[in-house]
Specification:
alpha/beta; 2 domains; ten-stranded mixed β-sheet; binds 3-isopropylmalic acid; binds manganese (II) ion
Protein backbone atom coordinates (compact mmCIF):
# COMPACT_ATOMS: atom_id res chain seq x y z
CA UNK A 1 0.00 0.00 0.00
CA UNK A 2 1.19 3.54 -0.75
CA UNK A 3 1.99 5.90 1.98
CA UNK A 4 -0.49 8.73 2.22
CA UNK A 5 2.51 11.02 2.51
CA UNK A 6 3.84 9.90 -0.84
CA UNK A 7 0.63 10.13 -2.86
CA UNK A 8 -0.41 13.58 -1.70
CA UNK A 9 0.84 16.31 -4.07
CA UNK A 10 3.39 18.76 -2.77
CA UNK A 11 2.51 22.42 -2.43
CA UNK A 12 3.73 24.54 -5.37
CA UNK A 13 4.30 28.30 -5.48
CA UNK A 14 0.93 28.72 -7.28
CA UNK A 15 -1.10 26.64 -4.90
CA UNK A 16 -1.58 27.28 -1.21
CA UNK A 17 0.64 25.27 1.09
CA UNK A 18 -0.80 21.97 2.09
CA UNK A 19 -2.19 21.84 5.56
CA UNK A 20 -0.41 18.93 7.22
CA UNK A 21 -2.06 19.42 10.55
CA UNK A 22 -4.00 16.18 10.22
CA UNK A 23 -0.70 14.33 10.57
CA UNK A 24 -0.06 12.95 14.02
CA UNK A 25 3.46 12.84 15.42
CA UNK A 26 4.31 10.50 18.23
CA UNK A 27 7.56 10.06 20.09
CA UNK A 28 8.20 6.52 21.22
CA UNK A 29 11.04 5.52 23.53
CA UNK A 30 12.38 2.21 22.25
CA UNK A 31 14.11 0.19 24.98
CA UNK A 32 15.12 -3.26 23.68
CA UNK A 33 16.40 -4.40 27.09
CA UNK A 34 18.38 -7.61 27.61
CA UNK A 35 18.62 -11.16 26.31
CA UNK A 36 16.19 -11.75 23.45
CA UNK A 37 15.02 -8.12 23.73
CA UNK A 38 16.78 -6.68 20.69
CA UNK A 39 15.74 -9.61 18.47
CA UNK A 40 12.03 -9.37 19.27
CA UNK A 41 12.12 -5.56 19.25
CA UNK A 42 13.47 -5.62 15.69
CA UNK A 43 10.34 -7.51 14.60
CA UNK A 44 8.05 -5.17 16.50
CA UNK A 45 9.65 -2.21 14.70
CA UNK A 46 9.04 -3.84 11.31
CA UNK A 47 5.35 -3.88 12.18
CA UNK A 48 5.47 -0.28 13.38
CA UNK A 49 7.04 0.69 10.02
CA UNK A 50 4.09 -0.79 8.14
CA UNK A 51 1.59 1.08 10.27
CA UNK A 52 3.50 4.33 9.79
CA UNK A 53 3.68 3.92 6.02
CA UNK A 54 -0.05 3.61 5.56
CA UNK A 55 -1.39 6.12 8.08
CA UNK A 56 -1.14 9.88 8.49
CA UNK A 57 1.21 9.41 11.40
CA UNK A 58 4.92 9.57 12.16
CA UNK A 59 6.61 7.64 14.89
CA UNK A 60 9.76 9.24 16.18
CA UNK A 61 11.68 6.24 17.49
CA UNK A 62 14.00 7.22 20.34
CA UNK A 63 16.26 4.29 21.24
CA UNK A 64 17.53 4.02 24.81
CA UNK A 65 19.58 1.72 27.01
CA UNK A 66 17.69 -0.05 29.76
CA UNK A 67 18.36 -3.05 31.96
CA UNK A 68 21.50 -5.09 32.57
CA UNK A 69 22.97 -4.08 29.21
CA UNK A 70 22.67 -0.43 30.28
CA UNK A 71 24.32 -1.22 33.59
CA UNK A 72 27.33 -2.83 31.88
CA UNK A 73 27.72 0.20 29.61
CA UNK A 74 26.98 3.01 32.04
CA UNK A 75 26.97 1.57 35.55
CA UNK A 76 23.26 2.34 35.77
CA UNK A 77 20.39 0.15 34.60
CA UNK A 78 18.02 3.13 34.09
CA UNK A 79 20.51 5.82 33.01
CA UNK A 80 19.67 9.53 33.06
CA UNK A 81 19.63 9.86 29.27
CA UNK A 82 17.07 7.06 29.08
CA UNK A 83 14.98 8.70 31.78
CA UNK A 84 15.10 11.95 29.79
CA UNK A 85 13.86 10.35 26.61
CA UNK A 86 11.15 8.37 28.39
CA UNK A 87 10.00 11.61 30.02
CA UNK A 88 9.46 13.24 26.67
CA UNK A 89 8.03 10.17 24.90
CA UNK A 90 4.30 9.78 24.29
CA UNK A 91 4.70 6.07 24.96
CA UNK A 92 7.44 3.62 25.82
CA UNK A 93 8.00 0.33 24.07
CA UNK A 94 10.14 -1.87 26.24
CA UNK A 95 11.65 -5.30 25.77
CA UNK A 96 12.33 -7.79 28.56
CA UNK A 97 15.17 -7.25 31.02
CA UNK A 98 17.31 -9.31 33.36
CA UNK A 99 20.16 -11.80 33.40
CA UNK A 100 20.38 -15.44 34.36
CA UNK A 101 20.54 -16.30 38.06
CA UNK A 102 24.33 -16.60 38.20
CA UNK A 103 25.18 -13.77 35.79
CA UNK A 104 23.09 -11.25 37.70
CA UNK A 105 25.29 -11.71 40.77
CA UNK A 106 27.94 -9.42 39.27
CA UNK A 107 25.51 -6.50 39.59
CA UNK A 108 24.89 -5.12 43.10
CA UNK A 109 21.42 -6.17 44.31
CA UNK A 110 19.88 -2.70 44.31
CA UNK A 111 21.07 -2.03 40.77
CA UNK A 112 19.96 -5.30 39.22
CA UNK A 113 17.64 -4.39 36.39
CA UNK A 114 14.42 -5.47 38.09
CA UNK A 115 15.05 -3.29 41.16
CA UNK A 116 17.23 -0.69 39.47
CA UNK A 117 15.29 -0.08 36.25
CA UNK A 118 11.89 -1.74 35.95
CA UNK A 119 10.39 -0.91 39.34
CA UNK A 120 11.73 2.66 39.18
CA UNK A 121 10.12 3.04 35.74
CA UNK A 122 6.79 1.79 37.08
CA UNK A 123 7.05 4.14 40.02
CA UNK A 124 8.20 7.16 37.98
CA UNK A 125 5.27 6.96 35.56
CA UNK A 126 2.87 5.57 38.16
CA UNK A 127 1.79 2.85 35.74
CA UNK A 128 -0.68 1.30 38.14
CA UNK A 129 -2.90 -0.58 35.70
CA UNK A 130 -1.27 -3.57 34.06
CA UNK A 131 -3.34 -5.23 31.35
CA UNK A 132 -2.30 -8.77 30.49
CA UNK A 133 -4.47 -10.35 27.83
CA UNK A 134 -4.58 -14.14 27.94
CA UNK A 135 -5.86 -14.98 24.50
CA UNK A 136 -5.89 -18.13 22.42
CA UNK A 137 -8.50 -18.58 19.69
CA UNK A 138 -10.11 -22.00 19.28
CA UNK A 139 -8.09 -22.54 16.10
CA UNK A 140 -4.86 -22.39 18.13
CA UNK A 141 -6.01 -24.33 21.18
CA UNK A 142 -3.55 -27.11 20.26
CA UNK A 143 -0.77 -24.81 21.56
CA UNK A 144 -2.16 -25.22 25.07
CA UNK A 145 -0.96 -28.08 27.27
CA UNK A 146 -4.55 -28.44 28.50
CA UNK A 147 -6.80 -31.16 27.06
CA UNK A 148 -9.13 -30.18 24.20
CA UNK A 149 -12.20 -30.73 26.37
CA UNK A 150 -10.91 -27.97 28.64
CA UNK A 151 -9.37 -25.49 26.21
CA UNK A 152 -10.89 -26.56 22.88
CA UNK A 153 -12.91 -23.37 22.47
CA UNK A 154 -9.91 -21.21 23.22
CA UNK A 155 -9.58 -18.75 26.05
CA UNK A 156 -9.99 -14.99 26.30
CA UNK A 157 -9.17 -13.47 29.67
CA UNK A 158 -7.97 -10.00 30.64
CA UNK A 159 -5.88 -9.93 33.79
CA UNK A 160 -5.83 -6.48 35.38
CA UNK A 161 -2.91 -6.41 37.77
CA UNK A 162 -2.20 -3.54 40.17
CA UNK A 163 1.39 -2.62 39.35
CA UNK A 164 2.81 0.03 41.68
CA UNK A 165 1.72 -1.03 45.16
CA UNK A 166 1.73 -3.97 47.51
CA UNK A 167 4.73 -5.87 48.71
CA UNK A 168 6.81 -4.91 45.65
CA UNK A 169 6.91 -1.31 46.77
CA UNK A 170 6.50 -1.58 50.55
CA UNK A 171 9.22 -0.86 53.10
CA UNK A 172 11.99 -3.44 53.15
CA UNK A 173 14.54 -4.24 55.77
CA UNK A 174 17.15 -6.89 56.34
CA UNK A 175 19.48 -7.44 59.26
CA UNK A 176 20.33 -9.68 62.15
CA UNK A 177 17.73 -10.04 64.88
CA UNK A 178 18.29 -10.25 68.61
CA UNK A 179 18.64 -14.01 68.41
CA UNK A 180 21.56 -13.52 66.04
CA UNK A 181 19.58 -14.72 63.01
CA UNK A 182 19.52 -13.04 59.64
CA UNK A 183 16.02 -11.76 58.83
CA UNK A 184 14.19 -10.00 56.03
CA UNK A 185 11.06 -7.95 56.51
CA UNK A 186 8.84 -6.40 53.88
CA UNK A 187 5.55 -4.67 53.98
CA UNK A 188 2.44 -5.28 51.89
CA UNK A 189 0.52 -2.02 52.05
CA UNK A 190 -2.35 -0.52 50.05
CA UNK A 191 -4.44 2.50 50.82
CA UNK A 192 -7.95 2.71 49.47
CA UNK A 193 -7.11 5.20 46.72
CA UNK A 194 -4.48 2.87 45.26
CA UNK A 195 -7.01 0.06 45.20
CA UNK A 196 -9.92 2.12 43.97
CA UNK A 197 -8.24 3.39 40.81
CA UNK A 198 -7.29 -0.12 39.71
CA UNK A 199 -10.69 -1.53 40.61
CA UNK A 200 -12.41 1.25 38.61
CA UNK A 201 -10.36 0.34 35.56
CA UNK A 202 -11.20 -3.33 36.00
CA UNK A 203 -14.93 -2.59 36.13
CA UNK A 204 -14.63 -0.34 33.05
CA UNK A 205 -12.82 -3.14 31.25
CA UNK A 206 -15.52 -5.62 32.28
CA UNK A 207 -18.19 -3.27 30.88
CA UNK A 208 -16.46 -3.38 27.49
CA UNK A 209 -16.27 -7.17 27.56
CA UNK A 210 -18.53 -9.89 29.01
CA UNK A 211 -19.47 -7.89 32.13
CA UNK A 212 -18.04 -10.52 34.39
CA UNK A 213 -15.34 -9.63 36.92
CA UNK A 214 -13.44 -12.00 39.17
CA UNK A 215 -11.99 -10.40 42.28
CA UNK A 216 -8.91 -12.45 43.15
CA UNK A 217 -8.02 -12.11 46.82
CA UNK A 218 -6.79 -13.81 50.00
CA UNK A 219 -9.27 -12.37 52.48
CA UNK A 220 -9.12 -15.44 54.68
CA UNK A 221 -5.60 -14.37 55.71
CA UNK A 222 -4.64 -10.89 54.50
CA UNK A 223 -6.09 -7.60 55.78
CA UNK A 224 -5.09 -5.98 52.51
CA UNK A 225 -7.37 -8.43 50.70
CA UNK A 226 -10.25 -7.60 53.05
CA UNK A 227 -9.86 -3.91 52.18
CA UNK A 228 -9.48 -4.75 48.49
CA UNK A 229 -12.70 -6.79 48.56
CA UNK A 230 -14.59 -4.04 50.42
CA UNK A 231 -13.66 -1.64 47.65
CA UNK A 232 -14.74 -4.14 45.02
CA UNK A 233 -18.13 -4.43 46.74
CA UNK A 234 -18.53 -0.65 47.01
CA UNK A 235 -17.57 -0.13 43.37
CA UNK A 236 -19.92 -2.91 42.25
CA UNK A 237 -22.81 -0.60 43.23
CA UNK A 238 -21.62 1.87 40.57
CA UNK A 239 -21.59 -0.91 37.98
CA UNK A 240 -24.82 -2.85 38.49
CA UNK A 241 -24.43 -4.50 35.07
CA UNK A 242 -21.18 -6.23 36.02
CA UNK A 243 -21.43 -9.59 37.73
CA UNK A 244 -18.75 -9.88 40.42
CA UNK A 245 -17.40 -13.19 41.63
CA UNK A 246 -14.94 -13.44 44.48
CA UNK A 247 -12.27 -16.11 44.36
CA UNK A 248 -9.33 -16.88 46.64
CA UNK A 249 -6.05 -16.61 44.80
CA UNK A 250 -5.01 -20.20 45.53
CA UNK A 251 -8.35 -21.49 44.27
CA UNK A 252 -7.97 -19.28 41.19
CA UNK A 253 -4.69 -21.03 40.39
CA UNK A 254 -6.56 -24.35 40.32
CA UNK A 255 -9.53 -23.00 38.38
CA UNK A 256 -7.22 -21.53 35.74
CA UNK A 257 -6.08 -25.07 34.97
CA UNK A 258 -9.40 -26.87 35.36
CA UNK A 259 -11.73 -24.37 33.73
CA UNK A 260 -10.02 -21.24 32.37
CA UNK A 261 -13.03 -20.39 30.20
CA UNK A 262 -15.08 -19.36 33.24
CA UNK A 263 -12.97 -16.19 33.49
CA UNK A 264 -13.28 -12.95 31.60
CA UNK A 265 -11.76 -10.04 33.54
CA UNK A 266 -9.71 -10.87 36.63
CA UNK A 267 -8.45 -8.11 38.93
CA UNK A 268 -5.84 -8.53 41.63
CA UNK A 269 -3.03 -6.95 43.59
CA UNK A 270 0.53 -6.77 42.33
CA UNK A 271 2.14 -10.01 43.41
CA UNK A 272 -0.92 -12.20 42.84
CA UNK A 273 -1.01 -10.76 39.34
CA UNK A 274 2.65 -11.50 38.73
CA UNK A 275 2.19 -15.15 39.59
CA UNK A 276 -1.19 -15.83 38.00
CA UNK A 277 -0.28 -14.07 34.75
CA UNK A 278 2.72 -16.35 34.29
CA UNK A 279 0.48 -19.32 35.00
CA UNK A 280 -1.92 -18.00 32.39
CA UNK A 281 0.96 -17.89 29.91
CA UNK A 282 1.57 -21.55 30.65
CA UNK A 283 -2.05 -22.30 29.82
CA UNK A 284 -1.60 -20.67 26.42
CA UNK A 285 1.43 -22.86 25.81
CA UNK A 286 4.12 -20.18 26.03
CA UNK A 287 4.89 -16.96 27.82
CA UNK A 288 5.82 -15.78 24.34
CA UNK A 289 2.09 -15.21 23.82
CA UNK A 290 1.80 -12.66 26.62
CA UNK A 291 2.02 -8.97 25.66
CA UNK A 292 1.07 -6.30 28.17
CA UNK A 293 0.25 -2.66 28.73
CA UNK A 294 1.23 -0.73 31.85
CA UNK A 295 -0.88 2.40 32.08
CA UNK A 296 -0.53 5.43 34.32
CA UNK A 297 -2.26 8.78 34.53
CA UNK A 298 0.15 10.47 32.09
CA UNK A 299 2.04 7.79 30.30
CA UNK A 300 1.95 4.14 29.41
CA UNK A 301 4.59 1.65 28.59
CA UNK A 302 4.23 -1.62 26.74
CA UNK A 303 6.23 -4.77 27.31
CA UNK A 304 6.10 -8.55 27.02
CA UNK A 305 5.06 -10.15 30.33
CA UNK A 306 7.97 -12.56 30.13
CA UNK A 307 11.67 -12.33 30.93
CA UNK A 308 14.70 -11.89 28.71
CA UNK A 309 15.31 -15.65 28.17
CA UNK A 310 19.13 -15.38 28.15
CA UNK A 311 19.40 -19.10 27.33
CA UNK A 312 17.97 -18.55 23.84
CA UNK A 313 19.34 -15.04 23.19
CA UNK A 314 21.10 -14.34 19.86
CA UNK A 315 19.82 -17.54 18.28
CA UNK A 316 17.03 -15.96 16.25
CA UNK A 317 14.52 -18.44 17.69
CA UNK A 318 12.62 -16.33 20.23
CA UNK A 319 8.92 -15.75 19.69
CA UNK A 320 8.29 -12.07 18.89
CA UNK A 321 4.48 -12.35 19.36
CA UNK A 322 4.44 -10.72 22.79
CA UNK A 323 6.55 -7.79 21.60
CA UNK A 324 4.48 -7.30 18.43
CA UNK A 325 1.28 -7.67 20.49
CA UNK A 326 2.63 -4.95 22.77
CA UNK A 327 2.86 -2.67 19.71
CA UNK A 328 -0.80 -3.43 18.99
CA UNK A 329 -1.71 -2.52 22.56
CA UNK A 330 0.28 0.73 22.27
CA UNK A 331 -1.43 1.73 19.03
CA UNK A 332 -4.81 1.05 20.57
CA UNK A 333 -4.39 2.42 24.06
CA UNK A 334 -1.92 5.30 23.61
CA UNK A 335 -2.67 6.46 20.06
CA UNK A 336 -6.31 5.45 19.54
CA UNK A 337 -5.39 3.46 16.41
CA UNK A 338 -7.87 0.72 17.20
CA UNK A 339 -8.25 -0.56 13.68
CA UNK A 340 -4.52 -0.98 13.10
CA UNK A 341 -4.26 -2.74 16.45
CA UNK A 342 -6.95 -5.18 15.34
CA UNK A 343 -5.12 -5.69 12.05
CA UNK A 344 -1.96 -6.64 13.93
CA UNK A 345 -3.78 -9.14 16.14
CA UNK A 346 -5.30 -10.66 13.08
CA UNK A 347 -1.97 -10.83 11.28
CA UNK A 348 -0.36 -12.53 14.29
CA UNK A 349 -3.12 -15.13 14.44
CA UNK A 350 -3.04 -15.69 10.70
CA UNK A 351 0.65 -16.59 10.74
CA UNK A 352 -0.11 -19.34 13.23
CA UNK A 353 -3.23 -20.35 11.34
CA UNK A 354 -1.11 -20.84 8.20
CA UNK A 355 0.87 -23.47 10.06
CA UNK A 356 3.92 -21.49 11.18
CA UNK A 357 5.16 -21.09 14.69
CA UNK A 358 8.29 -20.39 16.67
CA UNK A 359 10.04 -23.23 18.47
CA UNK A 360 8.64 -22.40 21.93
CA UNK A 361 5.23 -23.55 20.67
CA UNK A 362 6.28 -26.62 18.76
CA UNK A 363 5.18 -29.87 20.32
CA UNK A 364 5.87 -33.41 19.27
CA UNK A 365 3.05 -34.62 17.07
CA UNK A 366 2.04 -31.21 15.72
CA UNK A 367 2.98 -30.47 12.16
CA UNK A 368 3.87 -26.79 12.43
CA UNK A 369 6.65 -25.36 10.33
CA UNK A 370 9.11 -23.84 12.78
CA UNK A 371 10.27 -20.39 11.76
CA UNK A 372 12.90 -18.06 13.16
CA UNK A 373 12.21 -14.82 15.00
CA UNK A 374 12.92 -12.85 11.83
CA UNK A 375 10.79 -15.06 9.58
CA UNK A 376 7.89 -14.86 11.98
CA UNK A 377 8.09 -11.06 11.92
CA UNK A 378 8.32 -11.04 8.12
CA UNK A 379 5.21 -13.20 7.89
CA UNK A 380 3.31 -10.86 10.18
CA UNK A 381 4.37 -7.95 7.98
CA UNK A 382 3.27 -9.86 4.85
CA UNK A 383 -0.09 -10.64 6.46
CA UNK A 384 -0.56 -6.96 7.19
C1 LIG B 1 6.68 -9.07 35.29
C2 LIG B 1 8.07 -9.43 35.74
C3 LIG B 1 8.52 -8.40 36.77
C4 LIG B 1 7.56 -8.44 37.93
C5 LIG B 1 9.97 -8.61 37.24
C6 LIG B 1 10.94 -8.63 36.08
C7 LIG B 1 10.37 -7.61 38.28
O1 LIG B 1 8.10 -10.71 36.25
O2 LIG B 1 6.52 -7.99 34.70
O3 LIG B 1 5.77 -9.87 35.51
O4 LIG B 1 7.70 -9.24 38.84
O5 LIG B 1 6.62 -7.64 37.92
MN1 LIG C 1 6.26 -11.77 36.12
Amino acid sequence: MHSLKNVLPNGTPDSPAIDWSFMKHYKIAILPGDGIGSEIMAEALKVLDVVERRNPVTFDRMPGRFGASAWFETGNSFPDDTIALCDKAHAILKGPIGLGHEESKVIPIEEQPERGALLPMRRRYDTFANFRPVYLPASLSHFSPLKPEIIGNGVDIMIVRELVGGIYFGKKETGVNDRGLRYAHEVLEYDESLIKRTVDIAFDTAMKRRRLLHNIHKSNVLKSSILWTEIIDETAKEFPDVEVRHMLVDAAATHLCLDPCQFDVMVMENMFGDILSDQAGGILGSLGLMPSACVGPQKAYYEPSHGSAPDIADKNIANPYSMIGSVAMMLDMSFGMTEEAANIWQALQSVFASGYSTSDLSKPGTDCTIVSTGEFGDRVVAAL
